[in-house]
Amino acid sequence: MIVYDKRLLDNLVLVEEAKSLESAGFISKEQKDLIKKELPAFKRQSNILVRLGFFLLGAFLYLSICGVISLFGLSGESLFFDICCYIFAIAGFAGAEFLAHQNYYEHGLDDAFILGAILNVGFAIAITTEGYELIIAIFVALASFVLYRRYLHLLSLVIFCLAASAVLFYGLFEFGSIGKAILPFVAMLVSAGFYFFTKKIISNLKDSYYYKGLLIANSFCLILFYLSCNYLVVRELSAMLLGIEILPGKDIPFAIFFHAFTLVVPILYLVQAIKTKDRIMLWISFLAIGFSIYTIRFYYSVLPIEVALTIGGLVLFAIAYFSIKKLKDKETGLTFKPDRINNSNALLNAEALIVASTFGLKPEVKTESPMDFGGGGFSGGGSEGSF
């Protein structure tokens, strides 16, 4: 399914590990540069600004191709309008395939064609179905997932996660008021199920180039799980989708559960992140705690905003200060000392990298022996009875 040479993908992982080892002080900059030089690599842009520039250039190229196609198709009038987005999507797929065969990966040019193809798939289905949201979401999810599996394009996976969530929401909308009423609970259960599913795949993962994508999907499940039953989200969506008018002194059904969920889940995220040393979950827990405070402030304004901000700042300062005091001298476990290696997998290939950088080994290069052995007709290699 993957269009790229898997040896190049493995080399990319090795180069990233080498950067981690170099930043941690295990290997020198010269060794890291030697590893990078000796390993065949993609045409790739790690600088986000340069990649953005190539993306704009690729978008201009893609639009130019679509413009040329439109010039030839204008004679078809309404018929061309019905099928033009399909043709543009095919052009995007073809451009992405061509660039992939030229070893462009996370370059910027390929981003323009891949995202353009997904966008045109959505427009094409919208025109055909006259804006049927569920069908649009299904086809966008399928297209983005196929493009991720084909090109390992992380932005496509983000689009897939959003589109798959839209499929769930619009699918429940088909059941009318009952589907809308159970939407928070179904979204909570589905996101929890996919969280543990992706977690299990990550723990048994053999192909390291799938790791980033699975990590994005796993993190998305955490965010969706929290937002699915957040009190503010549920209350506002109930008013929007079900037309419920909440009068003063009244509340939404199961309000106690949603209140408790809003307060407890961020704390559980925080405790689990500290226990497992999961950096991404830790940041998600901080964001969830902040949004929970905003949710409470949105409906229950106990203090003036300037007083609340001042007290909140003092509390955060006190927590940070005493945490640093307690953790600054710890050498193991949870500590305030900076990580020597940010990536927990960085030592997996350390031995191969250090050996390669020390002896200057060149992967994938076969050397021919100057001696011509063989030809023996009985015991002893190469023994023919003559010199």
TrEMBL record:
The chain crosses the membrane at residues 52-73, 79-100, 112-128, 134-149, 154-172, 178-197, 209-234, 254-271, 280-299, 305-324. The keyword Transmembrane applies. Keywords: Membrane, Transmembrane, Transmembrane helix. It comes from the Bacteria. This is DUF2157 domain-containing protein. It comes from Flavobacterium hibernum.
